[in-house]
Predict the structure.
Amino acid sequence: MALRLALRHATGFSLEVDVRLPGQGVSAIFGPSGCGKTTLLRCVAGLTRPAAGHVAVGGQVWQDDAAGVWRPTHARPLGMVFQEASLFPHLTVHQNLDFGRRRVPAAERRVSLEQAIELLGIGHLLARRPAGLSGGERQRVAIARALATSPRLLLMDEPLASLDAARKAELLPWFERLARELRIPVLYVTHALDEVARLADHLLLLDGGRVRAQGPAHALLGQLDIARTHGDAAGALIDGHVGAVDGTHHLLQLDFAGGTLLCVPPPGSAPRALGQPLRVRVLARDVSLALSPAHDSSILNVLPATVQDLADDGPAQLLVALDLAGTRLLARVTRKSVAQLGLRPGQRVFAQIKGVAVLD
Ligand SMILES: Nc1ncnc2c1ncn2[C@@H]1O[C@H](COP(=O)(O)OP(=O)(O)OP(=O)(O)O)[C@@H](O)[C@H]1O
């Protein structure tokens, strides 16, 4: 997916973006309020027309000002999901879905209604009207309707932002399933780092209408200059697979390139099969460092690591980037500890990991 957009609002805000994003998986667009996330999405959808632009998705050119190409929104095969689901209130769930399906000529249908219904788990809701659905259910129906249009691209603008924490937790697994099983690329706008950590393969960081960085989500979140801006949420993502299931102690073992980690599965989560992909997040505040491994501590995960770099993180603390045989980990430690341990790049240490959040 190629996006080259330049736009200036009367308010003085300007957006200048020139990026190539993967044609599959979830690309999260992340950044502070007012940085231009929604504006970027609207340009891709054709709802806002940039002064100059080139938008190409899956080999189709939707806008190319140099060549005089402009496809209006209705001629762009995309699905959109916003903060509030905009379903037709007078139609049942099934009729809402069918409305989406009928927007697309039969020859171009690639996602069946049955597939969309199964993927979002809404088979039991088909006869209801939107007023009889919970916020989370409405959002699932809105996504299924977007899918029923067989889009080449899904645009999601803070789809979880209007839900409380419990509804959000209920909906996240559906988003994960969608991201895993669909071959449709998703542009996902959010300002919630936990959503990025759980869902994103790729990350586009916007700041003041400019691309600050973009790349694989785990690489960017592990970068010190970026992690420093994330406060308590700074942490590393580690992708691996289930290496063992310890039924006696109710623990999962994650095997990844840099070693193994024992993790506590989230309460009520489905049993894991050996070899199943697993993503975890380790917050920098949950990692402490030692020069020798402690054998008499309650911490289960102690891994040998090499200090790569250190960066200021306020007056009292530093963020430390660690290398675990090719996998990045972050630790937040005090300046005092850095001085006492003499921490410097290249040094061998032991990372003591107090908490590991299993994400999917
Ligand atoms: N139609 C418009 N006319 C003029 N200015 C606009 C318009 N739409 C957005 N803006 C301005 O453009 C900037 C970017 O807005 P945008 O909604 O894209 O940000 P955002 O990153 O999505 O923010 P948030 O996270 O708060 O939703 C803001 O300064 C906003 O006030």
